[in-house]
TrEMBL record:
Organism (species): Magnetococcus marinus (strain ATCC BAA-1437 / JCM 17883 / MC-1)
Spans through the membrane: none
InterPro entries named among the record's database cross-references: PhoX, TAT_signal
Protein known as: Twin-arginine translocation pathway signal
Superkingdom of the organism of origin: Bacteria
Record PROSITE patterns: TAT
Length: 592
């Protein structure tokens, strides 16, 4: 066999090796600027970061914890300005051991517990931050007194609930008898944007927040099907009864939705869009259909859960932004069934059809949307290996789905070809190509882009034949971004397996066409313990925003004893989740 002498990929950088270090690393020729860290000021009157004196009042004005989804929204709205925009960032979760000093997290005083819980809630949610630079190659600056800067939290933010399930009896609580206004948004993992310039946040692992015993409720399956087992990761239910399902059985029904935020209007209430269904939304990715309607794809990130698509009933209006305000409240939700022959079929989740009726306990479309997972099983959707991010290639129109792993899978099938699957894989879906790319079609084709894992036979990995010479293996693909050339940038999240494998999480560049197809090259490595989130480019591809989540967090680590104190490295300061921005030293396009 003839190995090419030259790197067959389109990327002009030299790959990094896979070693884990206490600091981040980026390919030669690039610079990393730390832009926003946990605790940095977002609102003009935010106090300075002091991890030894945390409070919900301070935290709700500061950048939140564990940044995940990142997107850059140009200013003014509708422009492609690469030098001035709003950085919109999710804060997925908190980890008390890493976030609080021991005196605070171990205190049993009710006042201290309440303060800790409320600080955690204020560290969740979303940040909108105005940023600008002089031009490609120049450093980015946070605009401190911006009228756009905003924190949305799980502490005091009020969100509207809209769509077919809004006001349903299952969404009503003592605090909100209307079932239409919810305090907070939880576990905002990945997300997306809409053509009209709003941001979508996926509410993912909402089970972690709820205490109480499902067995002592009237319908335990309602909770257990969403992973609520009465073993919360947090102590919120001890302080606030709304997080105790025995006292407030409907509160969990108000989470697990896609949230729409208008970053250009700081006074606009975020909205939970129930038409898109309730499950553990990794994110939400939009694409415009040839006829002007809009499709939103979303993965449900649990082992053996499903891939969904929502299509709006109406077309979007490019000429009047406000006309699209409630476009996501009406449309059709469907779920993917993968055949062994390579077809994807999108099955509508429509009340009254395919068994979704009273015989299965669905009295209305609202019931179908509140219990989406159960409805998807009834219609015969294909269980997948933890669907994380879904992204549409802007050049080819193909859809890519990260299946991050499924360590307990018993039986392999076409779209999930390994059992167990500890390394994850990436599916490539092809909609019919007619006048345009038909993202609303009933049938797509599917194939596998790559199977993750080390370059040995035992792992069952599959990449470009020249990966060993020119690239890197990867595991646990999680988030994707595409550059303007339609090349894929893959972020990974191995969790605890990172240390066992000695393989840093990070960002990998990957061609989808030509000689370099399916040949990942490592561009960025996270510091030890962190997973890679984001990624997001400016519209000119000269800046790349990356979210480093849970740096220094390994088994047994803590605030006092982290595996890394990234990015400040200033003991006794703990590590700080942060968004960094990568630029080429000469201001060129990222990746060449
Ligand atoms: Fe929050 Fe699916 O990762
Ligand atoms: Ca995460
Ligand atoms: Ca994720
Ligand atoms: Ca993940």
């Amino acid at each position: 066999e003839v190995v090419p002498e030259m790197d067959p990929t389109s990327f002009g950088f030299r790959r990094l090796d896979d070693a884990i270090q206490v600091n981040h690393r980026v390919a030669e020729g690039y610079t990393v600027q730390t832009l926003l860290r946990w605790g940095d000021g977002v609102l003009a009157d935010a106090p300075p970061f002091d991890p030894f004196q945390q409070s919900p009042e301070a935290q709700s004005k500061q950048f939140g914890y564990n940044n995940d989804f990142v997107t850059y929204m140009p200013l003014p709205v509708g422009s492609h300005n690469p030098n001035h925009g709003l950085l919109c960032v999710n804060h997925e979760y908190t980890d008390a051991a890493m976030m609080f000093p021991k005196a605070q997290r171990a205190s049993e005083s009710p006042e201290d517990l309440k303060r800790m819980v409320e600080t955690e809630q204020a560290a969740h949610g979303h940040s909108v931050v105005e940023i600008r630079r002089q031009g490609p190659g120049a450093a980015w600056q946070v605009v401190k007194r911006s009228r756009y800067n905003r924190r949305i939290t799980a502490w005091q933010s009020k969100l509207q609930i809209r769509g077919p399930a809004a006001g349903h009896a299952d969404l009503r609580t003592l605090d909100d008898p209307t079932g239409t206004v919810c305090v907070g948004t939880l576990n905002n993992c990945a997300g997306g944007t809409t053509p009209w310039g709003t941001v979508l946040l996926g509410e993912e692992n909402i089970n972690a927040y709820f205490g109480g015993n499902p067995a002592r409720t009237t319908e335990p399956q309602r909770y257990t099907s969403m992973g609520i087992q009465g073993r919360p990761s947090y102590r919120w239910h001890e302080v606030q009864p709304r997080f105790d399902i025995e006292q407030n059985p409907n509160e969990p029904n108000r989470f697990g939705w896609v949230v729409e935020v208008d970053p250009y209007d700081p006074t606009a209430r975020p909205v939970k869009r129930t038409a898109l269904g309730r499950f553990k939304h990794e994110g939400a990715t939009s694409v415009v259909l040839p006829d002007g309607r809009v499709a939103i794809y979303s993965g449900d990130d649990s082992a053996g859960e499903f891939l969904y698509r929502f299509v709006t009933q109406e077309r979007w209006n490019p000429n009047a932004r406000a006309a699209n305000r409630d476009l996501l409240d009406q449309g059709s939700l469907s779920v993917a069934q993968f055949s062994e022959e390579g077809f994807v079929r999108w099955i509508p989740l429509e009340h009254g059809q395919r068994g979704l009726d009273a015989s299965q306990g669905f009295a209305s479309q609202a019931d179908v949307l509140i219990q989406t997972r159960r409805a998807a099983r009834v219609v015969g959707a294909t269980p997948l290996d933890r669907p994380e991010d879904v992204q549409v290639n802007p050049i080819s129109g193909r859809l890519y789905v990260a299946l991050t792993n499924h360590t307990q899978r018993q039986q392999a099938d076409g779209a999930n070809p390994r059992a167990p699957n500890p390394y994850g894989h990436i599916l490539e879906l092809t909609p019919p190509m007619g006048e345009g790319v038909e993202h609303g079609a009933e049938r797509f084709l599917w194939n596998i882009l790559l199977l993750g894992g080390p370059l040995d036979e035992a792992s069952g990995s599959a990449y470009n034949a020249y990966v060993e010479t020119f690239g890197n293996w990867l595991a646990a693909p999680d988030n994707f971004a595409f550059d303007r050339q339609g090349r894929m940038w893959i972020a990974t999240d191995q969790g605890g397996a990172q240390l066992k494998r000695g393989h840093a999480d990070g960002l990998f560049a990957c061609d989808l066409q030509g000689m370099g197809r399916a040949l990942p090259k490592r561009f960025f490595s996270c510091p030890v313990g962190a997973e890679m989130c984001g990624p997001a480019f400016t519209p000119d591809d000269t800046s790349l925003f990356l979210a480093v989540q849970h740096p220094g967090e390994v088994k047994g680590s803590s605030f006092e004893n982290p595996a890394s104190r990234w990015p400040d490295f200033a003991a006794p300061l703990p590590p700080r989740p942060a968004v960094v921005v990568v630029t080429h030293k000469q201001g060129k396009v990222i990746g060449g």
